Amino acid sequence: MRILPEADDQDIDIELLPANRIDTLKELWTDLEARADGSFFLSWHWIGTWLAFLPARTRPHVLVAHRHGRVIGLALLCPRTLWRFGVLRTRCWLLHETGERAFDRLFMEYNGILADRACAEAVLSACFEWLGRRLTNWDELVLGGLEPAAETAVRRAAARLGHTLQVRMADSTQWVDLDGVRACGGDYLATLGKNTRAAVKRAMRLYAERGALEYRVASTVGEALDDFRAMEVLHQTSWTARGQSGAFANPVFRPFHEQLIRDGVPAGAVRLCRISVGGEPIGFLHNFVHRGRVLNYQGGFAYEADKRLKPGIVSHVLAIEDTLKRGEPAYDFMSTPAGHKPLLSNAEQPMNWIALGPDRLTRQIDARLRQAKAGLTELMKRLPRPRLAPANR
Questions:
Q1: Which contiguous run of DSSP H or E holds residue 315?
Q2: How far apart are CA 95 and CA 40, in angstroms?
Q3: Are 362 and 89 a contacting pair, CB within 8 Å?
Q4: Can you point out the beta strands (E) in 211-334?
Q5: What residues contact residue 252 under an 8 Å CB cut-off, 6+ apart?
Q6: CB atoms within 10 A of CB 52
Q7: pTM of the predicted model over 0.70
Q8: Please, are residues 322 and 217 in contact by the beta-carbon 8 Å criterion?
């Protein structure tokens, strides 16, 4: 099928093929990646590992955009029938997701279509409109964690096609613009708010009373894997103490990231950071590095009763200062809310999880149920909590 929505798109041909019919996908992807400005999550480091660990019943398809025989756009989509609220049958195509809850909790961010930078806007426009037109026999196109250019193209496609667009989750990414820090003299701590700066300096001083505060990046795969496993212990300890399961409770999380580390550390795409005091670890950071941008994906920290000790904030500050020294442009906390992010960052942008599709009754019901659920959740937050009766002595 060929779509000609705009003049710039007239010579773009698009097809959607089962992934198992493309023997040279890695070569096609890495060749286009060198001509594209996609995120780490659209790099072969992530995509190749994602494909290797897909659940058995997943049927990935490859969206391929050509211009004059040259590949200028690539993406992976999975078809899946989902049951919303247990009663609404919804046939979906998911962009770089599977519909399997546990597997998708690996969390794709900065999502979109890998597009040749020479014609990226036209590729995004053509691909999302093409996908929108395919929804004749489907209900939704599910697009999680979109980067801004992709979201702009999606919204334009929805307007052209008359489809409804639902924002399923609205979030933002926050990061430290290190070029901005350099322009202000290069002292990162000096750019922080007065209270934050004082808290960081106090925590570092308290840690220094115990021994040397050290920051180390794993230099080998073995060292990185050891740090990753030590991070698991700290991460799970703090999360279970809060009554939550933690990332490592997901059975796919550990093997997926161990493989990502094996492939990514030698290439400089994965950076495991260990922060210690007197030789004892107080924090670990699992970061990605893509075209100089450092993305913080996960961490584990040794929290203590003394709240003046801030292992998470201290770990991030040391990682940011290391990133600054390396001449890299940004340290990115990515999405999901956390208390340290607004304190340590100086830039942000929206990141949304969107569903696009025809305005059918099932989608109208779905939207109303979601609104009701959100309203009930907000109401429950506002209700006063009952006081617990004093325990018998």
A1: helix 311-325
A2: 15
A3: yes
A4: 213-217, 270-277, 280-290, 293-301, 330-334
A5: 53, 102, 103, 106
A6: 12
A7: yes
A8: yes
